Amino acid sequence: MYYQKLDEFPQDFLWGAASAAYQIEGAFDEAGKGRSIWDTYAHTPGNTYQGTTGDVAVDHYHHMEEDVALMGKMGLKAYRFSVAWSRVIPDGEGAVNEAGLDFYRRLIKALRANHVEPVLTLYHWDLPQALQDKYQGWESRETIAAFKKYCQVLFAAFKDDVKYWVTFNEQNVFTSMGYRWGTHPPKVMDIKRMYAANHIINLANAEAINLFHEMVPNGLIGPSFGYGPVYPLTGDPNDVLASVNADDFNNNWWLDVYCRGEYPFFMMKQLQRMGIAPVVTAADEQLLKSAKPDFLGVNYYHGGTVQTNRLQKPVATDQQAKDFSATDPYLMQPKADQAQSPEIPAFNSVASPYLAKTEWGWEIDPVGFRVALRQVYEKYRLPIFVTENGLGAVDQLVNGQIDDQYRIDYLQAHLLAMKEAITDGVAMIGYCAWSYTDLLSWLNGYRKRYGFVYIDRDDNGPKELKRIPKASYYWYQQIIAENGQQIGAQHD
Q: Which sites are catalytic (predicted)?
């Protein structure tokens, strides 16, 4: 749909930015903090890029006031951050570490003082190591009770100061990377265990939402999902069917549970046929049905293009299969050390012939952003909060400045797509760019930068950790000041 004039962003639209505790805080063993699975994983040789860790990260723990002051100067309306579970409850389920809780209390107070709405993420991948050791983490139902206690502590502490809460960040990503590909902790490569752990996390999500609605009646809560629309490579009906399959595997398996309280029938039947479906009890079904999110967080970076699965239509070359082995966890043939991870003949991921890519091979698709927002809102009719969207790049500091026009171009194209989606009728709460400052990339160290604010550090060490606003910082400042009126002005 083309419009001569686009609708304006809502007057109360939350223009924000995002981060995650492990990627920015540092202070990994200060003030009573316990170890997380990422502390352990990053300290194990060979697990991360050049051995990079979040021990110091960008030292937000000690620069918090400075960072929040920059947010206030920017005019930021919202800041999405995560709480490090092991900073608040070092062993995950025992005594509360008041010093850790106080850090987030001070952060929220500083945000409020700078007129920035805090958006609190309960879990952004850093499970306390003690729970991994004691219960095998998310593979045990015991962890549900621990998570519920952790949530109760935070709900009680911040129910009057935080309106917007996110339960889990990108459950589809951390379960796949942690239990299928073994590139995140706990470094498991077993797809059956992945689906079992994923189900337990779904139950924890439902428990958290129900508890929240009891304890924080004036707040809003929802999960944050890494969503990507799926395109068929051609008009061949077999490719179209493959895209329907891929949508079920990549999106509906999670979103139907979040928003409808039930697993999609097609996916469940396939997993049952293969003997890798999770065990779902009648009590589980009742719990999942009872939990109703208030909004849906959407993290968008790119979608995907697929064709008929490789068993029915072999790929042209081995290279094509290699190119997508890391982004298609449901189709690639199992490796020798993945004998317990059978192939699911549903679709085959391929490169889009229409899209450019970032330096890290991620397709750039702002139209897909509009497609994603439309698809999710039409299907589930929940207000959408874009909780991540951004460009990772190798920024260059030249004469004390960073000209990241490429990031401005990327974000501007995506903001236009979002404004078009609003004009289409999508109900939106806000938009949090990823990320506010540069931070530690889980798999790419400190060289892959996303922030509006440059941090003077690299993979070799923290340097002076000086904060330097980039060109994109001042651009976004203007976007916020004018409530996005300049986006899509050419339509008028």
A: 388
Residue 329: strand, helix, or coil: coil
Cα–Cα distance, 472 to 329 (Å, whole number): 34
Distance (Å, whole) CA 174 – CA 135: 18
In this prediction, residue 489 has a pLDDT band, given cuts at 50, 70 and 90, of confident
Tokens 């979002």, located at residue:
418
Q: Is residue 169's pLDDT more than 50?
A: yes
CB atoms within 10 A of CB 137: 26
Residues belonging to the active site = 388
pLDDT higher at 212 or 333: 212
- Judge whether residue 428 has pLDDT over 90: yes
> pLDDT per residue over 279-315, tens digit each?
999 999 999 999 999 999 999 999 999 999 887 887 7
The answer to whether residues 198 and 268 touch, using CB atoms and an 8 Å cutoff, is no
**Count of other CB atoms within 10 angstroms of residue 312:** 11
The torsion defined by the Cα of 118, 121, 126 and 132, in degrees rounded to 10, comes to 140
Let me know if 335 is exposed, middle or buried by CB neighbors in 10 A (0-12, 13-18, 19+).
Answer: exposed
The answer to whether 119 touches 166, Cβ cutoff 8 Å, is yes
Sequence-separated (6 or more) residues with CB below 8 Å from residue 145: 93
CB 2: neighbour CB atoms within 10 A?
5
User: Which alpha helices (H) appear in 263-402, and where do they start and end?
Assistant: 265-274, 282-290, 318-323, 366-380
Cα–Cα distance, 482 to 71 (Å, whole number): 16
Give the CATH number of domain 14-227+355-491; options: 3.20.130.10, 3.20.20.80, 3.40.50.2000, 3.20.20.70: 3.20.20.80
Residues 465 and 63: beta-carbon distance below 8 Å: yes
pLDDT exceeds 60 at position 322: no
pTM here is: 0.94
Residue 190 burial by CB count (10 A; 0-12/13-18/19+): exposed, middle or buried?
A: middle
Query: 299, 276 in Cβ contact below 8 A?
Result: no
